[in-house]
Amino acid sequence: MKFPKRKLFLLIIFAYVAFSLYAAYNVFFSTKVISRVHRIEKKEAGPSAAPFVGDEWNPWEDEQVEYNSALNKKREAFKQHMARIDKNKPKRYKVQIWGKAAIGLYLWEHILEGPLNPTDKIAQWREGELQSNKIDFSFYTGPAVVQGHVPLDMNSLVLVLNGREQQKVAYSTRWLEHVRALVQSHTVSHVAVVLLGDEHCNNDWIGPYLKRYGGFVDLLFLVYDSPWVNDRDVFQWPLGVATYRQFPMVKPNAEMITSNRPYLCNFLGTVYKNSSRETLVRVLKQSDLEKECITTAREKWLPQETADSLKHYQTALAQSELTLCPVGVNTECYRIYEACSYGSVPVVEDVLTPRTCAAGPSSPLRLLKAAGAPFIFITDWQELPAILEKERAMSQEQKVDRRRRLLEWYATFRQQMKERFTEVIEENFFKSG
């Protein structure tokens, strides 16, 4: 029996349309599609066990689990590696310095060699940062640095103060009381003080603030040969140059070392009544040395220099082989360090001044002597003519070599003070940290 081709064709068309409609229904209207490929039957012991159908099945699920596990292990290993790096990395500490005395500029610029912004010396607010060993130092100075307005973001503090006269002591005391309040409120944990002490070494006013007497000051760096110095909590500190008179940080150069200096010596300073300075001036006149030495004597001390007087003083240092350093109220004076800055050898009157400064075989100037200062030490200015006679006999080569050694010594001395200051603070502030 023949099946008409037309009917066969229509039957095929009908089947195709029916299948298409069924497929479209499943795609667009069915809420769940279960294929044989995605059906998972959970076989159970009893005959009434119903098949378990999973919503999704990932054929790479096991591989994904292994990959995630391996990735987590790598991440954990990386974390442990970074933790070991942090543990082995040298720990750094932060210390803030408040410069409330001009000697703070000698500490920051000359000893620590830190930058200051702005560079204008008469700016109301100046600040800087530097790293020394494991410590990150920050420094603030200027008239606008007042109590309660310094951004204190660390708990270790160095306060630079002036205790040379009663008015300065009163000002310094107010700052110490402010810091005491910070310690009591647990804002500050460690305190050191750099103090320009009394020239007679009478510094009893600061004693109650020291931790050894029940106070809060851990460390004291003290100028002059004080009997308090024990290298445990009280350390001697150099006087330095007169930054309060705008004496600059001098950078040595070849001309400073090799130039032919026209003068044997210089002395520019105040001549006090009944002092050895009167003897010095008399010796210069009697020996007709005023032509070979630059001398400017005044009867009254002036706290500030004019631009002209400062330039004249610096010129005298730069053009003289020797700088004469008679004692004043104390043996240690700014002139010693200023002469070193220009390679002019200090001729120091090695005489201990009266009052309460420490006496001993190495006093006065025990800090400089311990550092091997290449100075000329005398006990009487009557020795000066013989010293200058030796100067005249020296060759230019010998003088150049001596200048170089003096400048190298002074640079080394400042570096040693920097290392000592940093190490003492690190040891006492952070040893247990």
From TrEMBL:
<dbReference type="Pfam" id="PF24786">
    <property type="entry name" value="RXYLT1_N"/>
</dbReference>
<feature type="domain" description="RXYLT1 N-terminal">
    <location>
        <begin position="95"/>
        <end position="238"/>
    </location>
</feature>
<dbReference type="InterPro" id="IPR057539">
    <property type="entry name" value="RXYLT1_N"/>
</dbReference>
<dbReference type="GO" id="GO:0035269">
    <property type="term" value="P:protein O-linked glycosylation via mannose"/>
</dbReference>
<feature type="domain" description="RXYLT1 C-terminal">
    <location>
        <begin position="244"/>
        <end position="430"/>
    </location>
</feature>
<protein>
    <submittedName>
        <fullName>Ribitol xylosyltransferase 1</fullName>
    </submittedName>
</protein>
<dbReference type="InterPro" id="IPR055286">
    <property type="entry name" value="RXYLT1-like"/>
</dbReference>
<dbReference type="GO" id="GO:0005794">
    <property type="term" value="C:Golgi apparatus"/>
</dbReference>
<dbReference type="GO" id="GO:0120053">
    <property type="term" value="F:ribitol beta-1,4-xylosyltransferase activity"/>
</dbReference>
<dbReference type="Pfam" id="PF24785">
    <property type="entry name" value="RXYLT1_C"/>
</dbReference>
<dbReference type="InterPro" id="IPR057538">
    <property type="entry name" value="RXYLT1_C"/>
</dbReference>
